[in-house]
Design the sequence.
């Protein structure tokens, strides 16, 4: 009887601790997120053809980090998250040494171009530290300003066609154009609150990764995004990857990822990559934490 | 056997609740599961990307001083969790709980820091998701 009573107390204490821990983490903890209250009532309808505003992950700042790789298909070892690699895609993936995911190496053995402060590129900008994201728009284009690396991309909404994807870049009319880190994007409104964006012309596998787990993309990549403003304060964002060089079929990397509108006065903090700071970090912590005696795991 | 099951369940549930969120920059392969608690004096608080670094001198029972370095998340995440560039200054006496690296070097991932004023900073407060 006494043991049963003690056991009950321990169970209750454990559950109480969980409830308290959740309650603590469920509240925004600092001015930046605490101030992220809506500019209008939560039930207000979405304005027509308007995504402008400062948005943040609706489920908290940790939701957009995607440390193990793209949100909908993380590299966590689960069979349902195995990507449909082509033989070449798998070969490129295995040549990458990522710091996160089921195939992660120690901090002294990575080769993520991110850590040389190379441009993240698109679509990785969607899959690496997607945090406070500003959207500006006019009658001709939409600009998306990402917090990480203070980068931006432009999406044309003026009716121009998507550039034609060719070997080595794109064709705009009869003009050959170079690949870009953030590609060439055009978009159309499919209804009052849904924008569908097509992007081609990104950098190849020798320059960029898809995500922090080291998944590959090529210059043959086509990305489709759907941005749906559900109401005034909420938007969901989906991303589909179509890269026949790396994957045997298109797949969804981000599935209706929820974003919420922030206070329009919110000042977005810088998050940057600095070679000087990276060098000091690796010297003081990254390299000594991996050795001596440490070695890169077998792939 | 049956009597043991309930406390073990409670322990398992509690451990799940305190599981450590992933870092944005690198994984957990370099770190030990155990925690160490160190009382020391701050020599530098390096507010930087990809991780902030807190350096402290820790005097052992044998009188020897060991220089420890603990990493946190990046500045944006730390601000989300209530930390700042001004959280520490050289000379501050702090108590740091961290997960040490496996290879025995005096390095670790910071979990909490107890400040001289009695306030505790949680290194994972800014990275959690709400559901």
Sequence:
């Amino acid at each position: 009887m006494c043991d049963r009573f003690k056991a009950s107390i321990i169970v209750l204490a454990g559950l109480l601790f969980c409830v308290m821990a959740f309650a603590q983490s469920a509240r925004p903890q600092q001015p930046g997120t605490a101030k992220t209250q809506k500019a209008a009532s939560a039930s207000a309808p979405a304005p027509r053809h308007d995504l402008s505003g400062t948005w943040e992950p609706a489920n908290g700042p940790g939701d957009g980090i995607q440390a193990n790789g793209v949100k909908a298909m993380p590299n966590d070892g689960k069979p349902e998250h195995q990507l449909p690699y082509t033989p070449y895609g798998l070969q490129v993936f295995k040549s990458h040494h990522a710091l996160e995911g089921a195939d992660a190496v120690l901090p002294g053995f990575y080769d993520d171009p991110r850590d040389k402060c190379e441009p993240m590129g698109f679509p990785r900008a969607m899959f690496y530290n997607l945090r406070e994201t500003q959207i500006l728009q006019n009658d001709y284009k939409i600009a998306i300003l990402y917090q990480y690396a203070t980068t931006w991309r432009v999406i044309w909404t003026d009716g121009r066609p998507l550039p034609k994807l060719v070997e080595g870049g794109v064709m705009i009319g009869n003009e050959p154009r170079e690949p870009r880190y953030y590609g060439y994007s055009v978009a159309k409104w499919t209804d009052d609150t849904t924008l569908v964006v097509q992007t081609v012309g990104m950098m190849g596998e020798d320059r960029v990764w898809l995500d922090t787990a080291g998944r590959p993309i090529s210059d043959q990549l086509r990305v489709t995004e759907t941005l749906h403003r559900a109401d005034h304060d909420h938007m969901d964002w989906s991303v589909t990857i179509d890269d026949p060089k790396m994957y045997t079929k298109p797949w969804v990397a981000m599935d209706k990822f929820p974003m919420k509108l922030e206070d329009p006065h919110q000042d977005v903090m810088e998050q940057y990559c600095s070679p000087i700071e990276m060098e000091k970090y690796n010297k003081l912590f990254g390299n000594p934490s991996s050795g001596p005696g440490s070695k890169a795991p077998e792939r | 056997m049956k009597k043991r099951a309930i406390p073990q369940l409670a322990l398992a549930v509690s451990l799940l609740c305190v599981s450590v969120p992933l870092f944005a920059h690198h994984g957990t392969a370099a770190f030990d599961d155990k925690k160490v608690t160190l009382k020391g004096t701050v020599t530098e608080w390096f507010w930087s990307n990809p991780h902030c670094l807190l350096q402290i001198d820790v005097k052992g029972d044998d009188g020897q001083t060991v220089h420890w370095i603990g990493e946190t998340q990046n500045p944006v995440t730390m601000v989300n969790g209530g930390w700042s560039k001004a959280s520490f200054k050289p000379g501050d006496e702090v108590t740091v709980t961290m997960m040490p690296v496996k290879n025995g070097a005096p390095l670790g991932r910071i979990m909490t820091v107890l400040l001289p004023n009695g306030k505790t900073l949680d290194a994972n407060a800014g990275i959690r998701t709400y559901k």
User: Anything to note?
Assistant: The mean pLDDT of chain B is 84. Residues 2-17 of chain B form the longest helix (16 residues).
